[in-house]
Amino acid sequence: MKALARYGKEFGRYRLIDVPVPEIGDEDLLVKVGAATICGADMKHFRVDNGSDEFNSIRGHEFAGEIVKVGPKVTDWHVGQRVVSDNTGHVCGTCPACERADFLCCESKVNIGLDNNRWGGGFTKYAIIPGEILRIHRHAIWELPDWLPYEQAAAIEPLCNSYKAVAEQTHLKPGQDVVIIGAGPLGLYSVQVAKLMGAVNIVLVGLDADVNTRFKVAKQLGATHVVNGSQEDVVARCQEICGKDNLGLVIECSGANIALEQAINMVRPNAEIVRAGMGFKPLNFPINRITEWNISLIGHMAYDSTTWRNVLRLVDHKKVQLAPMITHRFGLSEWEKGFEAMAAKDAIKVVLTYDFDD
Questions:
Q1: CA-CA 20 to 30 A from 273: which of 82, 230, 265, 286?
Q2: CB half-sphere exposure, 261, CA atoms < 13 A
Q3: Are 113 and 61 in contact (CB under 8 A)?
């Protein structure tokens, strides 16, 4: 079968390669991938060619499909079930995070479809769900409603991220305002969650590249205002929309240093800032205002089983929209077109499906 693989350690190129259909162990599951979506974590390796020939992993950690084979010791799952992965492949099971079932914060975690995993993700035909994770974390996969298309199921993982960031890690109350910085999937899903939570003003901050596609979808999903940070003074405009006294919550989804600085400067005393985005540059501005105004800066990572349970119930009862987030579809043979659409910000979520004969 064909698979989109990453090479190199820190950053490395992609190649479409031939790999054997994986053999499962006694406790493993084999899933035929119905759809996989491209994530921002995949994008950081696009257009990078470090010349490395060291195989890293088969990518694609946002995927859903059908169980087509189970090991002889598997009792909880069966052939024919439609499932979505939370992308957990390995955890230690004993650390403080695992004790809380917060498995994506385990220091020893290994993700399916991300770096250096031995199972392979969803950018191929078949993927393994390892029995070792299911012994510790039964909800490393979830069964899907029959009506839900695989492409929408594959796009649930970032919704879980946003649900935890907005609904579980803040004290947001109905009637409050929210500023969301970053118009990618995390930001747009955060708009939906904030609307569900009863926020009054839901302000999405993006850039010039977000205007044509992402701002339009944001308004469709519940954003009351959009702010173009390439053209407008973000702090002043957000304070104008919400009023200084009402600006008590910012969800920072971009990972950009300037966005965190803007968040700190716009909020009122005793506010909360959730940093959901990832950045890799050291801060170059003072953060004393966090202390002076008693601001809570909250780190965010992934989700837990409670998150998934609640999100899947929202999906099944059609309380959230997944379809508007999917803007592009390509066969795996055209994977580069999908990555190009993401890089240009023409796309929000790109779906890849297996389109080879083998």
A1: 230
A2: 10
A3: yes
Per the CB < 8 A criterion, the answer to whether 249 and 272 are in contact is yes
Residues 6+ apart with CB under 8 A from 78: 67, 70
Q: Are 145 and 137 in contact (CB under 8 A)?
A: no
Rg, Å, the chain Cα set: 20
90: left (phi over 0), alpha (psi -120 to 50) or beta: beta
Q: Tell me the pLDDT of the chain (358 aa) as tens digits.
A: 999 999 887 777 899 999 999 999 999 999 999 999 999 889 888 887 777 788 889 999 999 999 999 999 999 999 999 999 999 999 999 999 999 999 999 999 999 998 767 788 999 999 999 999 999 999 999 999 999 999 999 999 999 999 999 999 999 999 999 999 999 999 999 999 999 999 999 999 999 999 999 999 999 999 999 999 999 999 999 999 999 999 999 999 999 999 999 999 999 999 999 999 988 889 999 999 999 999 999 999 999 999 999 999 999 999 999 999 999 999 999 999 999 999 999 999 999 999 999 7
φ, ψ of residue 274 to 5 degrees: the values are: -105, 120
* Strands 249-252, 349-353: pairing kind: unpaired
CA 155 to CA 124: how far, in whole Å?
17
pTM of the model: 0.95
Contacts for 52 with CB less than 8 Å, ≥ 6 apart: 7, 8, 9, 12, 13
Beta bridge partners of 327: none
